[in-house]
Amino acid sequence: MKKIIIASVVTMLLAIPAVALNKGKAAKAKTLEVSFNYQRQQGPGSNQYAVWIENEKGEVVKTLFVTSFTTKGRTRGNEQPMRGYLKRPACVPNWVKAAKANDLSDQQLDAVTGATPQASGTQVFTWDFTDQEGKSVKKGTYKVFVEATLFNASTIIYSGSFSTQDKTGNITLTSQLTEPDEKHKDMVTDVNVVLK
To answer: What is the Cα–Cα distance from 110 to 95, expressed in whole angstroms?
Structure first.
């Protein structure tokens, strides 16, 4: 009986470090969260942005969000409806090209379009590793993009690579600015992408 008790105690003591080690390890990510601070700008030619995911081939697997002017435009009076990126070609041009927006139906665009926020504040978008049809994507490397039209031809794009096999944690982003615009530079700031 004494040997059984000692053996049990030893087994429990040996298990403690293993449990402690596993507790400290990051779990495999199940979702990707994109967040940023949005400051609404005054006047036309601004306030448009898109958030999307591409695979290793550079194909858009899912658009998480694109502002409504980009896809639907805005009609006044007797104007004919026209997609915003056609009326204003500088409107999130990288997303328009990557998503092949001209090949998408109005219904497909509606599925990813949301109203341009009327108030400033934190914007949050989540990707659950599914494609535009809701099917799970293949395991592999993907890239996340946040593109914002600051003012007319001034566009900033943030991007970062990650794997669906990665553990939870922050993704390192790089940014590219087409033209500086001091007046509108704070439209999108504090861009953060986290695997959760």
So the answer is: 15
DSSP H helical ranges for the chain: 2-24, 68-72, 84-87, 93-98, 106-110
Helices (H), 25-162: 68-72, 84-87, 93-98, 106-110
Could you tell me which of 122, 121, 166 has the C-alpha nearest to residue 144?
166
What is the pTM assigned to this prediction? 0.85
Question: pLDDT tens for residues 79-103?
Answer: 778 999 999 999 999 999 999 999 9
Non-local CB neighbours of 29 within 8 Å, separated by 6+ positions: 164, 166, 167, 168, 169, 195, 196
Which contacts qualify for 180-186: CB closer than 8 Å, 24 or more apart? 180/154, 181/150, 181/151, 181/154, 183/151, 184/41, 184/46, 184/150, 184/151, 184/154, 185/150, 186/39
Q: Are 128 and 134 in contact (CB under 8 A)?
A: no
Average pLDDT, the chain: 89
